Amino acid sequence: TIALNAAISACEKGGQWERALQLFSAVGKGKVEVDTISVNAVISACEKGSNWKTAVQFFCEAAQVEVELATITFNATISACEKSGKWERALYLFSLMAGNKVQPNTVTFGAAISACQKDGEWKKAVQLFGLMTQRKVEPNAVTFSAAISACERGSGWERALQ
């Protein structure tokens, strides 16, 4: 499993999402067990390769085979959607976290807010930022910037000042 994870991570860093999927598929049929780290690495490879559809499909398949979905699994999948401008899909994935008893963190909120910001959904971005502070998740420069940019893009600049 450690060797598999290292190989998939190398594919991720090299932008070889197809190869990462091939490795994962090949070993899934053998005696090597796949784990959350393997799944996260494949989804991250898809994210870096701007292939949101494959990332989401792989996420769904992982959920069905009882691989534990961790915060980082959601983060990578939400980020893949965010980078491709799929804000509705990103928010849908975000909404699944509670049902899976997974807590969103600053990265999760940042990706979801950025997804909304990129499509001018400033009201959704502000709602997410409010939820973030309500849940006592510490905002960072990325989340502040994304929320402010969302307000700017959506003509909600007055909200950005609050």
What does this structure look like?
By secondary structure, this protein is mainly α. Helices cover 73% and strands 0% of the residues.
Offer a quick outline of the entry:
The chain has helices at 2-13, 17-28, 36-48, 52-64, 71-83, 87-99, 106-118, 122-134, 141-153, 157-160. It is built from 10 helices and no strands.
List keywords for this structure.
elongated; 162 residues; 0% strand
The first-to-last residue Cα distance is: 49 Å
Output the number of helix runs.
Answer: 10
Series of H and E elements: HHHHHHHHHH
The low-confidence runs, each spanning 5 or more residues with pLDDT under 50, are none
Strand content: under 5%
The whole-number mean of residue pLDDT values reads 85
> Percent helix among the residues?
over 70%
Rounded to an integer, what's the Rg over CA atoms? 17 Å
Shape: elongated
Category from helices, strands and their pairing: mainly alpha
